[in-house]
Amino acid sequence: MKAISRSVQVSVLAGILMVASAGLAKHLTPNVKIADSKSQFQLAEIIPAAFGGWTIDTSIIPLQVDPETQARLDKIYNQTLSRTYIDPQGNRVMLSIAYGGDQSSNMAVHLPEVCYGAQGFEVQKSGRSEVSTAYGTIPVKHLYAVNGPRQEPITYWITVGDKALTPGMDQRMQELRYGLSGAIPDAMLVRVSSIDSDTGAAYAIQEGFVRAMLSSMKPQDRARIIGSFPG
Q: How far apart are CA 157 and CA 168, in angstroms?
């Protein structure tokens, strides 16, 4: 009888732990989308068509993805924007922005490393850097992608919720912070690139482009792109 009693006790205890675990998991599962608490916006409207000498140039189309990849992106992102800008000196910068209101584990942003690789590019260089602006320092990632004669230096960052960051541990920690509070963050991926074999010159032009773009935006729209900074 004692053996049976102990067996029953173990079974009851196991059942209690399972119920408690399920309840805890349910409690910790993010279920509130912070995008729902924000005002609606359109990328095509908050990003100016002209600023700081830069105007839209229709002669160069930013990287286009294949239909299969585009179908996956349509599931991840609520909005996308692709434009090419040109300045008075003839420098061109391609801008691509993607916004997703649900940055949960199965809706993660589609990183440029993956996107370019899927289009036949070889990402030969990758490194972290920063872009200093009047509103704060943006952590960015620099890539150098090559496809035949096309050489494309790339600068990009991700804004998760209210913070701009680069992919990796910082991104995961930001998502975890939201998750522990029961919230699902939104995310913005901002990518600028140019066709140039001189990566140093290209990155410098891209940084100037980013600064000019941010300076031309309304504060609330700029915050969507780069988040907020301390101070």
A: 11
Sign, Cα dihedral of 34, 130, 199, 126: negative
Long-range pairs, 43-46, Cβ under 8 A, ≥24: 43/79, 43/80, 43/81, 43/97, 43/99, 44/81, 46/217, 46/218, 46/221, 46/224
Which comes out higher in pLDDT, residue 167 or 28? 167
Alpha helices, H only, 83-144: 112-118
Structure tokens at 224: 């969507």
225 closest CA partner among 101, 46, 104 = 46
The residue to which tokens 């239909």 are assigned: 67
For residue 35, what pLDDT is reported? 67
Please state which CATH number belongs to domain 31-226.
Answer: 3.40.1000
Tokens of 26: 């349910």
The alpha carbon of 114 is separated from its chain's Cα centroid by a whole number of angstroms, namely: 13
DSSP 42-92: -HHHHS-SEETTEEE-SSSPPP---HHHHHHHHHH-SEEEEEEEE-TT--E
Q: Are 186 and 174 in contact (CB under 8 A)?
A: no
Other Cβ atoms closer than 10 A to 141? 21
**pLDDT tens-place string over residues 23-50:** 444 445 666 776 666 778 999 999 999 9
| Phi, then psi, of 220 in degrees rounded to 5 | -70, -30
